[in-house]
Each structure stands twice: as C-alpha cells, then as structure tokens.
Amino acid sequence: MDPMIFSPTARVTPFSLKIPPRIIFGTGSVSRLPEAMHRRGRHPLLVLGGRSFGSSDHFAALTTNMGRFGLCWEKIYIAGEPSPTMIDGIVADLAGSGIDLVVAIGGGAALDAGKAISAMLVEGGPVSRFLEGLGDTSPSGRRLPFIAVPTTAGTGSEATANAVLSEVGETGFKKSLRHDNFLPDLALVDPCLTLSCPPALTLSCAMDCFSQLVEGYLSTRASAITDALAWEGLGAIGRSLTAVIRDGGDLAARCDLAYAALLSGIVLANAGLGTVHGLASIIGGRVAIPHGLVCGKLMAPANRLTLARLRDTDDSHPALSKYAALGRLFRPEEERNDAGYQEAFIAFLDRLNSLLPLPSHSRGGLDPQQIARIASKADNKNNPVPLSLAELTTLLALLLA
Ligand SMILES: [Fe+2]
User: Fold this and answer.
1) Is the pLDDT of residue 178 over 90?
2) Ion ligand 1 — residues with CB under 5 Å?
C-alpha cells in the first residue's frame, strides 16, 4: 500500500479507542465458543437470527460441545429488526430463568437484540426509557456478560457499544440503546458462518459495512487510528467485493468482508458516521427497505453533494484529500490530479448504486410536504460538512417519494 495514497495530510492527534476487550477472528473459530461461554457463565441464552443457523451443522456441533462443557442453555429466535416491544417481551418471559450469559449468533438484528437483552435483564424495562433521543434517562451500563458472533458481514455490531431498536410506521424510528459498557465482552468472528448468507443479503450487508467505513474515514471525529482501521477495511472490500458477489462460496473473499465489517464497527464506534447514516436511521423507521440498501443508494448522491459543498466552502478541508485517496483506492486505473480522483470516487459510487436493486413497492410514497417534515428531523451526524435542509429533503425524496 502506498502511504501517500492513504493519508496525505495525516497528523497524529490525541485519541481514545473503544474496542471489545477480546476479539477472536478466523475460519473455524466458532469451535472456541463453548469454552469462551463456559468462562463467562453456566446458563447462557442463545439469541439466534434466522432459523437456518439453528438447523445447521455448525449449530449441531456447537450444542454438542456446549453439552461437554456442562452448559445448560435456552434459545430464542429474532424475527426481523428488534423493537422495544420485542425486547421487553423477551425480558419479561426470562424473568426468574437464571440466565447468566447472553450469546447472540446472527446478523445485526440478532446481535443488537442480544446486546439489548443482556442489558435489560439487569436494568429492568421498559427499554424505551433508555433509548437515545426518546427516553427520559440513560442506561446505567450494568448488564450480563455478552458474546457476539456475527453470521453476516455488515453492521459491525460485534464491535459497537449500541443496540439499534426500531419501530416501523407513521411514527417510526430507529434509536440506540447505548453505553460504553455495552461493547461485547467477546466478538467472535468466524467467516465460515457467512458462507451460507444469500447473495441479496450479502450485497446489502456489504453496502452497510462499506458506507460505515467511508463515513467513519471522512468523519469530523476521525483520528489517525480510526483512519488506519477504516483504510484497512476499505482495502479488504476493494479486494473482495466483486469476488464475493460473483461466488458466495469464496472463503478468502468472505474473510475479507467479515474483517471489513468488524473494522467498520470499531470505526463507527470511535469516529462516528455521516449524513447517509443520519438519513438511514429516519428512513428505516418509515419504510421496510434493508438498512444496507438504503445506505448504498444514498452514498453516491450524498457524497456528490458533500464534495460540492466542501469545494465551495473550504478548498483546504482535509476531507478533500480523503476523497482523492478514496478515488485512488477504488479507481486507480488512470493517472489523475486530486480533483480527478475525487470525481472518480463519486463515479465509483454511481456504479455501485446501479448494482443495487430497490423494489418500487417498498418506497414510502410520501408527498413533498411529508418528506420535508421528516427531513427537518434528520441529522448530518459527523459529515465533513453539514448538508442543508433542502439537500437532505432531496436525498430523502430519493427513497420516500
Ligand atoms: Fe449501518
């Protein structure tokens, strides 16, 4: 890797880094899960995503080994993205169960549900009291031990301190239950578990992870260390995105994507995100389009507007050098100047956009006034430059009109 491509203007400024205290990554590493569970509890709750994992050879081997360690487990399945009502119901059902450890194995929804359950089994509900921007108090941070085992390469929830809960509908929302203590005690990432992830879900999850890495890299809260981690993740995606879409059985490519997703979680937990995720959290409460697809569809138009705004307002802004670096990474074919590489990155995002299906029936069908009202609640998060209300409205209309 050419260091000049990576970070032409970087300076090491003060930073702090929150990461899970233990990360195990590698093919076959799920075999280490029973021992890791045994160290942390005796009566684990398994929080599973799709039923396919529960009927897989992986699960059969896992439960056999859990039995050898004397673990007495219970299991639940999470259908769809977790809502506050779902979490409260599960926690009520588990009252008096003696569960002393929560292990989530699945996609982002299962991991977020497990994270929230591990907290609320100790804190007590209702969970909506503790949601950012919705509740009236903050969580204490007390929780049961929690292990996160992703089976998709997307949200990076295995490395974040928040659980996203959502309600879809007229007053829908996506809000976080967040506390630094909610970082999993162990993030166990076995890329083999992602091999059975179907193509459409693989693509949507990859778009989530890609957008998180790009937004964290460009974020106003980025540091030298989050830049390094984001760059590492982006390189892994650049190497393997095409390969994993072409052949979901390509284990080396699956490893790259699982690695990128883990890194995207660390990056977003420490550097924050940008306008795309600010809008995605609002759209996700309104229409049932997969989060990764929403992010993927917004990346090109949102970054085109951000780049234009940066050029208009501050032609020495560090994010401009980063846009050029992204162009060199993803479109290295032609020799260009910085402005040319910035454009090349936007063209790359346009091409990704064209690969993403978006069924028209899944759109919101809202009128311009409704969209403007929703846009007024949107958040630019840590975008390198905030977009205006009119620009946010235009972006929202792409998916809600
Ligand atoms: Fe995301």
Assistant:
1) yes
2) 208
Give the pLDDT mean for 85-107: 97
Using DSSP, state whether 164 is helix, strand or coil: strand
Residue among 295, 85, 274 at smallest CA distance from 173: 85
Q: 21 CA to middle of ligand 1, Å?
A: 22
Tokens at 320, concatenated: 């401009």
359 residue type, one letter: P
Question: How many Å lie between the centroid of ligand 1 and the Cα of residue 281?
Answer: 9
Distance CA 280, CA 52 (A): 28
Cα 371 from Cα 332, distance rounded (Å): 38
Select from 223, 228, 227 the least CA-distant residue to 15.
223
| Cα 54 from Cα 161, distance rounded (Å) | 26
CA of 41 to the centre of ligand 1 (A): 31
Cα 157 to averaged position of ligand 1 atoms, centre (Å): 9
> Residues for the chain: how many in total?
401
Output Rg (C-alpha) for the chain, integer angstroms: 21
Instruction: Give the Å distance between the CA of 292 and the centre of ligand 1.
Output: 6
Kindly report, residue by residue over 306-331, the tens digit of the pLDDT.
999 999 999 999 999 999 999 999 99
11-31 pLDDT, tens per residue? 788 999 999 999 999 999 999
